[in-house]
Amino acid sequence: MSELKTLLEEKRKLVDKKATEYRQVRDDWNNRTKEHLTTRNNLNTEVRELIANVRTQRELREQKNEEVRDKKQRRSECNKVVRAAKDRLSELRGDSGDSRDEGHGHGRRGRRDKKVTVHSLRREFERLEREFEQGRHTGKNEIKVMDRLKKIRAQIQNMERSEEDNEELKEAREVLRKALESQEASHLEVTRAAEEAQQAHDLMIEWNEEVNRKREVAEEAHRKLRRSKKEADQAHHHYIVSIRCLHSTQQIIKAIQGIASGTAPEKSSSEGVQDLMSKLMSGETLSTEQLMELQRFE
């Protein structure tokens, strides 16, 4: 009997040590579980906020794209007004004959019959000036080109002065000026709206990528949460089994002591422990304090 008691005491100490180890492992995994749970929940909150931002930017982008379409329609209308104003001014200046001759003139006669206008003179002036800068006119030809440029400049000035006395031309030029201003303003509005739409699109893409990144991190935290919870449950299960073995060993040791001394264990000393063991054996959940009381009981 003495040898059995000694063996049981050794087993009891071993089981008690194991129970303590399992409890510590369980508590460590429970702490990790709490950390992973907090991390996952925080990340999921950030993901929801980012998704809301993505939705907002998408709506803003669609709004700006609609605005771009409206602004382009307005610009197209301004372009038509500008073309009409230019055509009217060309008609009053006689430039229409210039373009007609370019299309239907034949050989030297076609070029010779072209009507001289401010527009045609400016084109010739710009062409000669460009060729002169490129070094295509040298020597005597250079002097001829310089003289021709002076004549063209004087001719343009004379024609523009004569146009100043023409009220219809002045009015047409003013109409064109205002049409060009409206055209430029509408183009700037299109550009601004397009830039804002692009900015909203770029930000939407950026936040959408951030959503994917955060979601991956949140999923990783969730996987760690499941693993830590599984490990904690497993350690807790081993702890419960150790407590049951410990209690059974303690009960056997007390029975041996009672037999040896001729007395039975006092009910008052084991009453609370029996109640806790009954709950444990029936599957009820005990608090950590109650489980530690069982482990301490000898």
What descriptive keywords fit this protein?
298 residues; Helix Hairpins; 8 helices; 90% helix; 0% strand
List the helices and strands and how they pair.
Layout: H1 2-93, H2 95-104, H3 107-112, H4 118-133, H5 140-164, H6 167-261, H7 267-281, H8 288-296
Description of the molecule:
The protein is mainly alpha-helical and 298 residues long. It has one domain (2-265): Helix Hairpins (Orthogonal Bundle), CATH 1.10.287. Helix content is 90%, strand content 0%. The chain is built from 8 helices and no strands. The chain is rod-shaped, with a radius of gyration of 49 Å. The chain starts with a helix and ends with a helix. Residues 97-112 and 267-271 have low confidence and may be disordered.
What global shape is seen? rod-shaped
Give the CATH topology: Helix Hairpins
Percentage of residues in DSSP E strands: under 5%
How many domain regions?
1
- How far is the N terminus from the C terminus? 19 Å
Largest sheet: none
Order of helices and strands: HHHHHHHH
CATH class designation: Mainly Alpha
Helix content: over 70%
Which regions contain 5 or more consecutive residues with pLDDT less than 50? 97-112, 267-271
* Alpha plus pi helix count: 8
Rg over alpha carbons: 49 Å
**CATH-level-2 architecture:** Orthogonal Bundle
Number of strands: 0
The SS-based structural class is mainly alpha
Arithmetic mean pLDDT: 79
